[in-house]
Amino acid sequence: MDLTSKMKRAMEIKNSNFGNKIEFAYPNETLAISTTSDSCNLSCAHCNGHYLKNMTPIQDYKSKAKGRNLSSFLLSGGCSFEGDIPINRHIDTIKQLKKEGYKLNAHLGLMSKEAIETVCQYIDIVSFDLVFDKDTIREVYKINKDKEDYIKAYELIKQNTEVAPHICIGLKGGQIKGEYEIINYLSENPPKKVTFIVLIPTKNTEYEKVSPPSLGKVADLLCEARISLPNTEINLGCMRPRGQYRKELDELALMCGVNKIVLPSKSAKNKAIEMNINTVETKECCVL
C-alpha cells in the first residue's frame, strides 16, 4: 500500500473508532523532575545528559511547584549502567506526592522486578521506551542488552500498573531500525496508549550532525501504527525536531490518524481547522 492510500485508511480507522477530533496537549500542569539531577551514567548518543538539564532536581520540586497550578509530575532521571532509572531511591518523596493527590507518570527503564513491584504501587502510568534492534541499543545506550530485556521489563511493568510504550522513530542516527517490529509486537496485545517521538539531532551528542528520519518514513510508521493498533490512542510526543520539520510533521500526523499532538505547531492548528477536525486542548503530559 502506498503512503497516500495508507493515510486515507489510517484516517478512516481513527474517525471510526475515535471520532473526528484531535487533542492538542500543552503540559503546563505537569512538572518534569529528575531523580538524578543532571547526572547519567550512559552518555547516550542521542542525549548525552542534555535533556536532564531541563528538568527540576527532585530535591527542589517544592520550591519549583510553589505558586503553580500543577496536577501531575513526570518522574525521570539519568540511567545506571544497567539501563534503569533509579527513581525507587526516592520512594518516600514519591509516596508523599501520591499522598498529596498528584498523578504520577514515570520513566523506569530496565528496572529490576523487585524495584518495579515496589515503585509501581504509587505510579499511575509508566512511559516505557521500547527498543528492539540490538545494534541500536549498543550504539545509542552503550549497554549490552537486547529486545528480550525490554520485553521482560515492559511485561513486568504492565502487570503492576498501566504502561504507555514509547517508540523513538529514527533512534539509530535517523535510521528506521526495529520500529515496525515493535508495532507488530504491540499489535498482539494492544496497549491503551502509545507515544511516538522522533530523533532530535542534539548539540554536543554523537548524533549532532545526523539528519532526522525523512517525513515520509515517519508518516508511514504512524499510519502503520494506526492500522495495526486501531483502538489504541496514538500520541505524537514533545520530543521531536523543531522548525520547518515540525510544521510539516505535525500536519502529516493529523492525516495519519493520531489522537494527540503535544505542543503542536501553529500550522497543525490551522490544518485541523482546514480539515474541519474538532480540537480539544489538554494541560498535562501526553499519557495522563
Explain what you see.
- The chain has 288 residues and is α/β, with parallel strands linked by helices.
- It has one domain: Aldolase class I (TIM Barrel, Alpha-Beta Barrel), CATH 3.20.20.70.
- 36% of the residues lie in helices and 18% in strands.
- It is built from 10 helices and 11 strands.
- The protein has an 11-stranded parallel beta sheet with strand order 3-2-4-5-6-7-8-9-10-1-11.
- Strand 7, helix 7 and strand 8 form a beta-alpha-beta unit.
- The longest helix has 16 residues.
- The radius of gyration is 18 Å and the shape is globular.
- The mean pLDDT is 97.
Topology record:
Layout: H1 3-18, E1 21-25, E2 30-34, E3 56-57, H2 61-65, E4 72-76, H3 91-99, E5 103-106, H4 113-119, E6 125-129, H5 134-141, H6 147-160, E7 162-169, H7 179-187, E8 193-198, H8 215-228, E9 233-236, H9 243-255, E10 260-262, H10 266-274, E11 278-282
Parallel strand pairs: 1-10, 1-11, 2-3, 2-4, 4-5, 5-6, 6-7, 7-8, 8-9, 9-10
Helix pairs in contact: 1-8, 7-8, 8-9, 9-10
